Amino acid sequence: MPMPHLTDITGLASVASATAASVLLLPGIAKLASPRRALLPGAVFVLMLIPFGGMPLAAYVRGVTGDLSITTMVLLWCALLRPWCGGVAVVARHRLVLLVLIAFAALALYPMALGVGAYDPYRLGYGTPQFVVVLLLLALVAWFRKSALLALCIALATLAWAFGWYESGNLWDYLIDPFVAVYALATVMLCGVRLLLKLQRDRSR
Known about the structure:
- By secondary structure, this protein is mainly alpha-helical.
- The protein has nine helices and two strands.
- Helix 1 runs antiparallel to helix 2 (34-48).
- 69% of the residues lie in helices and 2% in strands.
- It folds into two domains: 1-67, no CATH class; 88-205, no CATH class.
């Protein structure tokens, strides 16, 4: 039996992780005791990797979603490890900074990649040295400002790209994907609405 490719391993693991993390959003999960809240996603993760009809359940989902980015994997595992840590695993401010950057990148990348404008930033991901240097400098700045989450996502994505971990040779596919882009945009807009409502309440006092 041939050994599975690294891309297949991480691809299946990413889908299984996403499914397991989504369990934490179900009603009533937050009320469970920490051991049960931690074990339930773990059980779902294992279930997604059990073969059914010759393939794991995660493989069927992966055929629709494709491979998730390294950034998505990091965020998913932060969510999955939170019940085990007994608290907030990531500082909310650092997480929001990451999501804001993802939202800006998505707004710049996807419309232009679809033909809006004359420039396609997606081409930068094919080994452009300037793009890699900017990312590494951004990771260093994030690290020195103690934003470990942002630094970790950039470092792991760049490292995986350098080793050719995914089938794609474009660094953008390691950094973001449509799912985390939509999540980031929705989260940033929600935070913006909450901030505007707070400012409005403060002015009315």
